[in-house]
Amino acid sequence: MAFYSFMIHGYGGEIVLGKISKKAAEFWQSDEMAEHLHGYVFSPEWFEEENPNIKIPKYAQIGVWHDLEDRGHEWGADDRHAQLTISEVSDDTWNANHVRDIYYGSLSDFVHEHGLDIVIDECFNDEVHLIEMGNQLLIQYIISSTVDYLKGKN
Fold first, then answer.
1. 3-state class of 5 per DSSP?
2. pTM for this one?
């Protein structure tokens, strides 16, 4: 029996979903601060250097976006820029030995060469959202990623 490894890699998107306190959410949703949330979660240190007149209370210091992941953290390659690697491997374990290369190249080229149909999800550019899910307030940071990830994540 042969075993195969399929790896899609390259430029793409990333999404994190994490809890913050209600008090922090109210601070960042205020008229004065809503426009600053993106800059702050991208780099709190940079934000403080660039905005010395804006003081962030301790309860609202939520940190950098990629650390706000207690509810989820997903990433993947964008279909337009993805590479596909197909290899034969020795077995079905995570650390299987490489046997031989079968394909390495553009995912788009592989799809077109083999007449495959693929589904492409709607994408966003850099966005930050404060959302309510059940009884939790969550911060969501999306970098060119899919919206479908959040469906069913409670």
1. strand
2. 0.54
